[in-house]
Amino acid sequence: MRKINIGxxxxxxxxxxxxxxxxxxxxxxxxxxxxxxxxxxxxxxDYKLAKKLKIEKKLFTNNYNQIVEDPKIDCVVELxxxxxxxxxxxxxxxxxxKHFVTxxxxxxxxxxxxxxxxxxxxxxxxMYEASVGGGIPLLNSIKESIIxxxxxxxxxxxxxxxxxxxxxxxxGKEFNSALSEAQKLGFAEAxxxxxxxxxxxxxxxxxxxxxxxxxxxNIKKIHIEGIEKINKxxxxxxKELNCKIKLIGKGKIKGKDLSLSVNxxxxxxxxxxxxxxxxFNAVLIDSKNLGPIMKYGYGAGMLPTASAVITDLIxxxxxxxxxxxQISKKYNLLNINDSKSRFYIRFFVVNxxxxxxxxxxxxxxxxxxxxxxxxxxxxxxxxxxPVVITTKKSKFSELDKLLSEVHKSGLTSKxxxxxxxxx
Amino acid sequence: MRKINIGxxxxxxxxxxxxxxxxxxxxxxxxxxxxxxxxxxxxxxDYKLAKKLKIEKKLFTNNYNQIVEDPKIDCVVELxxxxxxxxxxxxxxxxxxKHFVTxxxxxxxxxxxxxxxxxxxxxxxxMYEASVGGGIPLLNSIKESIIxxxxxxxxxxxxxxxxxxxxxxxxGKEFNSALSEAQKLGFAEAxxxxxxxxxxxxxxxxxxxxxxxxxxxNIKKIHIEGIEKINKxxxxxxKELNCKIKLIGKGKIKGKDLSLSVNxxxxxxxxxxxxxxxxFNAVLIDSKNLGPIMKYGYGAGMLPTASAVITDLIxxxxxxxxxxxQISKKYNLLNINDSKSRFYIRFFVVNxxxxxxxxxxxxxxxxxxxxxxxxxxxxxxxxxxPVVITTKKSKFSELDKLLSEVHKSGLTSKxxxxxxxxx
Lengths: 423, 423
What we know:
The structure is a homodimer.
Chain A: E1 2-9, H1 13-33, E2 35-43, H2 48-52, E3 60-61, H3 65-68, E4 75-78, H4 85-95, E5 99-102, H5 105-121, E6 126-127, H6 139-144, E7 151-157, H7 160-170, H8 175-184, H9 193-196, H10 199-213, E8 223-224, H11 232-240, E9 243-254, E10 257-268, E11 280-287, E12 291-298, H12 302-315, E13 332-333, E14 340-341, E15 343-350, H13 355-365, E16 370-375, E17 384-391, E18 394-395, H14 396-408, E19 417-422
Parallel strand pairs in A: 1-2, 1-4, 2-3, 4-5, 5-6, 8-10, 10-13, 10-19
Antiparallel strand pairs in A: 7-9, 7-11, 9-10, 11-12, 14-18, 15-17, 15-19, 16-17
């Protein structure tokens, strides 16, 4: 029987879930895994949340140093998020020779590589299963089995807030009312900016790139687009095209080239991610021997995420050698401007006669082949008429230029959008 | 660096894949996992397959005792299937104090419990990741993380052959031509009996019951139905009902009651298994903290399955204590006769006037509420007219009685079918 003494820093949603599961399942964890997890101390800004959980005062501190420096504690669980204080806590934890477990994707995205090197040198565990995909057994499963094979790509619906909003919009809701419903149900934060603008997904893409490709990207070099510009009309037209729009975090290798991106994409029916709705997350991983593997489940929430943290705590019992992040590969990170796809483009045209000829002439100028033009006649009496054009395989940068030229022409209002098809 | 010396018994599809992956990825496995896997000896009935793989004669034997008794070998990998010789090999392997890794679901379904007890006592690994779900990281992931939570149910599409046939039939193919296409593509065996009749799925259900519920069922007490009786018409009508028919292996707990079954089911669009097509497998696991988790991928095939075997070999490096099968729970195994569902019932009616009144009167007699009656008028000039009746929630045994009474009446030809809806 191994005993693991932990300190928890941060008693928000995940911290509360962790506290609850450890307390209620201590004996079953002991029985199943031969490990006893003891909570030695918890830290939060004030005693309020700890009081709610009936945590005794002597177990509580508002000074994280009392956890990272406590010689009785083997492992620090950081659940405060962010990359400033959390980074200091991570550094100090390793300095004081303790294992470090976190659910913090931003921290691992930005500093995972450095922290991992320090941890490995000191024979300490750095674990972060909960940072991507919430309760879905994902990162450890990549580390311990899928990585045996050569991973070629991953495609993920990695943000439950965005997926929930897009699901509601596909059923006819407007963006804002979908967002407030997500907030009401607790699937979206009070300030959902980092979810909506794609940055949460981008952090997860960075963590996945580390796990799948052994590559630690600079997040600034990744193309990141959120779902803010998506209109209900886009989901209607997507349906007409037998597609769904999903926010996809993606990584793909071709020889020495690596592409990483976060943006809305049009998925066809045969895509395993097509049916992933509401607050669910899913990741599709393609590798040489295994072919496509998909993992699906709740990507957030108190108990799923806390359960993933416990998975890491239990793994503290195992050999460390194969668990460390292995950043070694040098890839050439491609710029999205050079990528090619079929595209969905939606303009809001200021209703003037002859606009279609003018717009399509731009396509001709940029040598972009049009596949389909879709106008909804029943809304053609609006001042702004939505016009959708789908293209044959085209270069991102050319379409981008075309779009800004059309904008400048005054033919369209500003909210045009281009969405690639995922094939 | 740990060295693991293995002997492989059986050079069929998986054996070949294992040999190929170990040879081609030896150094990357060494680097990633700090383990060196050495093949000391391989065994097959004759040298033919070994010769094809360019295995030197001195590495080859046709006597498995030369592997299980070889003191240089740490771990025996059994890939011959079946429960007779394979069982002897398993027993002897443990007797000679070697770890045992297998892809053999029948063996684990029938003898996993006993073998596991012996292995645990001797501090040896018994591992069988490849036995369910092929290359999908499944059993180890249940053992090492999902099991932290209280698992409430699993639903799986666990046989690629059946799923491939049903997918083709949904596109309009007849059973026999779908089967021969599956055979041509290597998704179905020359003798597909155990796939088609549901027994392969049943073995996997037994293994899953052991992992998820700590319960080792007697396979004879499980309701097992295959896909033989399914007609193309059923898939057509299912489509009209916005459903798909899939062969589902299922386990579900309610208090102290456990139900286990293998049978075709009607899935609705919002079921995550709905979109699992062709040769793909998928398992949906519902647990207390995590909610529904789905895992999806190739459930068979040379490289996916061999890759799962390698996962086990790499895990030999880890602590054994938490890895053993834990059979302890006593459940009351329910009889399917007592289960209740909405049902799809299809009769082939011998075309006589008034048949519908006669059939529906039987429903009245058994107090089974009809939801919908579907007849396809365009095929009503056939001698056997397909009639589909869907029911409200009804007891399995009552419907079963009703069906045999209708048969006896001479109103229908024999191939009636009842398929529960999964909701």
